[in-house]
Amino acid sequence: MSTTAIATALLMIVFIGLIFLRVPIVYAIGVASLVDFIYLGINPMQMALKFVSNLNSYTLLAVPFFITMGELMSSGGVTDKLIDFSKELVGWVRGGAAMVNVVASFFFGGISGSSSADCASLGPIEIKMMEEQGYDRPFSTALTMASSVEGILVPPSQNMVIYTLAAAGVTTVSIGQLFVAGYIPGAVLSIVLMIYSWYYSKKHDIPVTGRFSPKACGKSFLNAIWGLLAVLIVVVGVIAGVFTTTESAAVAVVWSLIVGAFIYKGFKIREIPAIFNRVTLMLGKVLILIGVSGAFTYLLTYLQIPTMVTSALFSITSNKIAILLMLNVLMLILGCFIEMACLILMLTPVILPIWMQLGLSPIQLGVVMVLNLGIGLLTPPVGSTLFIGSAISGIKIEKLSKAMIPFYIVMGVALLILTYFPQAFMWLPNMMY
């Protein structure tokens, strides 16, 4: 057995073994990488250098700004405004309360960029609203969790920024293109969830309430526009070339601070340190993960693991449809066990070369990977959004996982559309760039 094969097996065995022993993912990556560095005779100082170099990125500065923007907006009272606007927009149709849930998540996702934040912030309000309309609690909670995944597709999304960093070793990915590409997939996910909500409401004879009022809709939109402008600052600023991604994120933070403290008055100035404290704790987890993954990614390249995986796949079949299906299954399975940001950093260097060899765009992979791993946030045993849904609803994980089964199927349909019909959404970034 060659040194490369032994080193590859050692890296994977130590990593997987530590995961099964419930060692935190960041330590599992770090220890597995260190063991391999020592076995290969590479100076461990190289690992420290890779850790630092992975964090030495101007684009990475956008991540703390986006997290801060989401926290400020979540604390600033934007949630109620978005739900009110969503009610006026779709609350009067059959399945209206469920559709309000989906639409509010689409809007809020553009502000928070996080499935967990979406579920935690909107969940208690949306679940109560749906129960008052006649929906049972398991369905209401499951829909809330499923719609929260829109938050990681609709820009600005810190996970998309992390994807561009992970792809940098293979090819250059435009964050502007990736942001633009996220809107239609977010809408596709919303549409399939709304169709299922309509079917469920009709099957269970949930009554239709309210009626459409253009005046009330316009008024609620004007109330919500201050929060939505934060998203426009980022997306329009990047697309128009007025700002870089990092600059637009910094401007959006200032705007979010003004909106939250002085327009919506959701928090007081004295509460800002507590908000920044939450941001720091969240950011610490993200940054140490990105740093450690630098050493792990270096080993993947050094051991030529992406090349081996590519050869193995093409030796099984050269059928494009089958290979795409296998890649999606791989991401779905791993997404059940490993945290999203970590998987983006680990899988991108492996999957992206295969994806491009099939003649597909790295922008499409970014969208497909984010949705794929977003489904993993809703699955046991480690889905963070699933745990949040259980906590806010009081439903046990086992019962909630069972209620999620129809939503896994519906979200799988959206995933297949984005995988096999990229023209459904790639026309927008292609047209604008």
What features would you describe in this structure?
This protein has helices at residues 3-20, 25-39, 45-55, 62-75, 78-90, 96-112, 115-132, 137-148, 150-153, 158-167, 175-203, 214-239, 245-263, 272-302, 305-316, 320-335, 340-357, 362-376, 384-393, 397-403, 405-420, 423-432. The model has no long low-confidence stretch (mean pLDDT 87). The termini are far apart. The protein has one domain (43-432). With 433 residues, it is mostly helical.
Q: Given the C-alpha coordinates, what overall shape results?
A: globular
Strand content: under 5%
List SSEs in N-to-C order. Answer: HHHHHHHHHHHHHHHHHHHHHH
Whole-number total of structural domains: 1
State the separation between the terminal residues, measured CA to CA: 48 Å
Low-confidence stretches: none
| Structural class category | mainly alpha
Helices, by number, come to 22
Fraction of helical residues: over 70%
Q: Biggest β-sheet: count, sense, barrel?
A: none
Instruction: Tell me how many strands there are.
Output: 0
How would you state the average pLDDT, rounded?
Answer: 87
The Cα radius of gyration reads 22 Å
